[in-house]
Amino acid sequence: SGEIYQWMTQIQKSNSELVTQHYLGKTIENRTMYYLQISQPSDKTKKIIWMDCGIHAREWISPAFCQWFVKEILQNYKSDPKISRFLKNLDLYILPVLNIDGYIYSWEKDRLWRKNRSPHMNGTCYGTDLNRNFNSSWGSIGVSYNCSSEIFCGSGPESEPETRAMAQFIERKKSDILCYLTIHSYGQYILTPYGSTTKPPSNSEELVGDKNFGPLKIIAKCTGTDNNAVPILNLQMRVAKKASAALMGKYGTRYEVGSTSLILYSNSGSSRDWAHMIGIPFSYTFELRDKGSHGFVLPPDQIQPTCEETMLAVTTIIDYIDQKYFPGGAVMLTSGSLGLSLCLSVVLTWTVS
Ligand SMILES: *[C@@H]1O[C@H](CO)[C@@H](O)[C@H](O)[C@H]1NC(C)=O
Ligand SMILES: *[C@@H]1O[C@H](CO)[C@@H](O)[C@H](O)[C@H]1NC(C)=O
Ligand SMILES: *[C@@H]1O[C@H](CO)[C@@H](O)[C@H](O)[C@H]1NC(C)=O
Ligand SMILES: *[C@@H]1O[C@H](CO)[C@@H](O)[C@H](O)[C@H]1NC(C)=O
Ligand SMILES: [Zn+2]
Start and end of every Peptidase M14 domain (predicted)? Predict the structure, then answer.
């Protein structure tokens, strides 16, 4: 807690050419929220990757990962070709702990505290679940209106100062943000939108002819008449699968990938859904280790391996996005892609090459 503030100041001082610390807002108990911006100085207009940690107080591995991520980027950006390539085009905005009040409360009073610390009912109950408080089908499903509940969604969308500060900031920057990442635990999932509906997200069709996934093969005929057919492919999901494969490559840890409402549960008012609804093309919730044997109280000896493997997943996503939006000289689509894109609604499959 206090240590995270010290760490932020420290890391900024010792890496002042790359990192700056910025004010985001105040929590309900008047603590200051800061985010870190990692930007390589350049004349180019760049895009943004946003990552937040610590929306839920008790998920201590989450802020640990944000810190690990920043440390690794700073240590390796000169030597790691992937990192140095994406930093030419992308700025990284990292919010190490959104719910600082709750986080401190979980250290000092109640290890399993989840929500923020806003008082309700004249101080007879405390806390709103910040991940049910965003303006995405707010209050509709997977929430409680009872302030004693762990999933109390607050008195309205963005009723909490923490949610409001983050949402207003992201809203202002949204046209530049390509990817929204939010880190939670536990369960070992990479979750895509939506939690509030089982409808597929908006960018399902973009995958057609994407060089990062190799050539496409048509397995069903394109009739050319069915304009109502729903695109089957989901780009966010495919990228998440690449990420989970990279993660598994490190220590064999298995992650499940899928739309929140289909593989986990339905929830409304999540930051992930909201980010995608306002137009950010890629939006993911990570649920880090483990699958329940220790749950929120992950043993210290798992912190480093969890961070290492998660780093691979996150940099896989960022790298993919970098290459998609800044192809810069790389070989683009080859023959066949034009024909494919005219046939969006047919069933496609990837050839494994
Ligand atoms: C937070 O700060 C504001 C203005 O400085 C003050 O009015 C308010 O009472 C403070 N709240 C708490 C919980 O300390
Ligand atoms: C809160 O306390 C005030 C003053 O004691 C009282 O008038 C009010 O009815 C209480 N509200 C609730 C929701 O209990
Ligand atoms: C929530 O979104 C709705 C519909 O997009 C909008 O009308 C409303 O003003 C938003 N509320 C807040 C608190 O931002
Ligand atoms: C809210 O939840 C608490 C704890 O489960 C319960 O005791 C209380 O009766 C509930 N209040 C309402 C208004 O349902
Ligand atoms: Zn969480």
Answer: 1-321
